[in-house]
Amino acid sequence: MAEMLSPRALNRALLARQLLLRRAKLTPLEAVRHLCGLQAQAPFPPYYGLWARLHGFRPDRLGRLLLDRQVVRIALMRGTVHLVTAEDCLWLRPLVQPLFDRDVRTNTAYAKALAPLDLHSVADRARNVLAEEPHTPSGLGKRLAEHWPDTPPAALAHAARGLLPLVQVPPRAVWGRSGRTLLTPAEDWLGRPLDRDASLNDLVLRYLAAFGPASVADAQAWSGRTRLGEVVERLRPRLRVFRTEQGREVFDLPEAPRPAPETPAPPRFIAEFDNLLLSHADRSRVLPEDARKRVFGVPNGVFPGTILVDGLVRGSWRITREREAATLDIEPYGRISKKDTEALESAGARLLRFAVGEAAQDIRFGPVE
Question: Of 18, 127, 151, 158, which has the fewest beta carbons less than 10 angstroms from its beta carbon?
Fold first, then answer.
């Protein structure tokens, strides 16, 4: 009989893998690799994600990695933009490419317009256009429409972004700078070919290192790939097998940390769109049901920054700026003890200094509903 892991044991294991029980003494590059990337469809949440996880993190260090092409922003797992190391980009994108191929054929907004086209020709033409210089998505669509004038440019740009591994080039997402979304092929940007010999075994093992213990359904939710049960079965002899209180099998690397359930978990500010909350089919290990409804109930697909108290989501946060002042608004989802409130105030002051420097600052707690 497999050993049972309680929800709290799963929670502490995940927090340890995510560097959220205690800040890690890793470089930003080491942390991005360990985490198998940070979700990054907005430019700056990865900076807040690393601030929460690393000792002495400075945003210029991550910005320099982007400029030096050691990390890149590219659509990967779940079809969403992630910030990953250059090395991980080259093997991850081929492994998740089936998601993008499927999306081009089935996307409700564009599939009908793209159905008559030879998509290989679209990809080839897009590659040639981008070899000249990086383009915005709209600019790329307009160039492609010169060859397919009866197809909406937005549909053509969507096809190109799905069929080709396109990175977003800086200064987009460099801290303290602004820049349009400009796309160029990853192989051109990095000067290296994609690694098409990578195995789904590697995908599952890297996932478990960053998010385990986890089920097959969890790995599929994180990656967007299907039929990973076959992969896990191949790997089973190399893995520890546990069960949840509901009897579900979860798998893990034998040597991975699994702290005791009573291990303290300090309050943490979690970035918008953080993979901590998006990388399991069963998110209850960090998201109680009442919090899940509130986090995923935000309109327009906006995923808020959240706060962890004793390892669980207990509220959300946002920073607003007005001229020379900034305010951190914390919205609790329930009552928070005086001790944890004081810890959040202290951490919140540090978060504000990280975000806005020496501007006038204020922290406000919203009412408990």
Answer: 127
